[in-house]
């Protein structure tokens, strides 16, 4: 079983930055991929970024490439999402997710956090 707790959300003006953190419990954290997803009001949840078990590869949605950066610290059981140059369209609830494989596809995410709100004002 894996439990995930996100933090770091908040309200920021366009062009600003936020860093999200996700603390995971469970001994399988370092063996599996981790990801970030988001859901805006009235929209379906969408993939933002994920990172392989050892940090060796990371993937990003086209909408955040060049602005967001994912990283992980397996010693601390924590994954991060650094968000720069934020835009109003980045406003959403951001969810941390844990996969069941070392390198995951979007369908491999089985564990989810409660989410943290990110609001970007223009």
List key phrases describing it:
122 residues, mainly beta, 7-stranded mixed β-sheet, 4-stranded antiparallel β-sheet, 11 strands, 0% helix
SSE blueprint and pairings:
Blueprint: E1 3-7, E2 10-13, E3 18-25, E4 34-39, E5 46-51, E6 58-60, E7 68-73, E8 78-83, E9 92-99, E10 109-112, E11 116-121
What does this structure look like?
The chain has strands at 3-7, 10-13, 18-25, 34-39, 46-51, 58-60, 68-73, 78-83, 92-99, 109-112, 116-121. The chain is mainly β and 122 residues long. The radius of gyration is 13 Å and the shape is globular. The termini are far apart.
- Secondary-structure element series: EEEEEEEEEEE
Identify the quaternary structure here.
single chain
Task: Indicate the overall shape.
Answer: globular
Percent helix among the residues?
under 10%
Largest sheet: 7 strands, mixed
Helix/strand class: mainly beta
Computed CA radius of gyration, to the nearest angstrom = 13 Å
**Nearest-integer average pLDDT:** 95
Regions with little confidence, pLDDT below 50 for 5+ residues: none
- How many extended strands? 11
Query: Termini separation (Å)?
Result: 40 Å
User: How large a portion of the residues is in β-strands, by DSSP E?
Assistant: over 45%
Tally the helices. 0
